[in-house]
Each structure stands twice: as C-alpha cells, then as structure tokens.
Amino acid sequence: MKKKLLSLLFGVATAALAMAATNSTLPADTNGDSTVTTDDAALIYAYILGTADEAVTLAQVDVNGDGTINTLDVVEVYVEMNKGFSDGWVDVYENEG
C-alpha cells in the first residue's frame, strides 16, 4: 500500500508540474500562491529532479524543515491538503494495519 501511495503521489505531482517563485506563510505552500495544492507537491518533485526554475530555493521546498528535500516534504503537502477531511487518504492510510 505504501509503495502504491507514493507512486500515486509521484504520478499526480509530475503530471501537475508547477514552476514558482516564493514561499508564503504556509510552509506547505511551496509556490507562494496562498493555497496548498498538488502544484506545491509538483514543485518539490521538480526541485528533486533538477527541473525547477533556478529561483526555487531549498528553504522554499523544505516543507518539514529537516534540511533535506525528499518525499517526506511531499507527504507534508498532502497532509496539509487533507486537513479538515475526516475520511481523507491520510486517515485511511493510518488506520490500515
């Protein structure tokens, strides 16, 4: 299930690649448009793959603040998107044994 979820996240993110400029007050809002969407996850993947605009910084896409850009930052974006949904994928995923 974990591999399928990560594959799905990667597929969605790469399909929605977004090039951005600045970060906002929401850590998961990597592209600075004041909303947290799949475009924010796509920007992280673009940074990892080396296809993001040169203006994109590590601080901008380091959502969890650990100094490393990886899938954990993407997961933080999806967790932020899921807030407010009682039956979202995060809850289902955590309740699966």
Structure description:
The protein is an all-alpha fold. Helix content is about 50%, strand content about 0%. The protein contains five helices and no strands.
Helix/strand-derived category reads mainly alpha
Helix content: 40-55%
Main sheet specs = none
Average the pLDDT over all residues and give the rounded result: 77
- Give the low-pLDDT segments: 14-24
Kindly provide the radius of gyration, computed on alpha-carbon positions and rounded to a whole number of angstroms.
13 Å
Span between N and C termini? 10 Å
One letter per element, helices H and strands E, the order comes to: HHHHH
Q: Strand fraction band?
A: under 5%
Helix tally? 5
Query: Tally of extended strands?
Result: 0
Outline type: globular
Brief digest:
This protein has 97 residues and is mainly alpha-helical. The chain has 5 helices and no strands.
Any chance you could write out the topology, listing elements then pairs?
Layout: H1 2-15, H2 38-49, H3 58-61, H4 71-82, H5 89-95
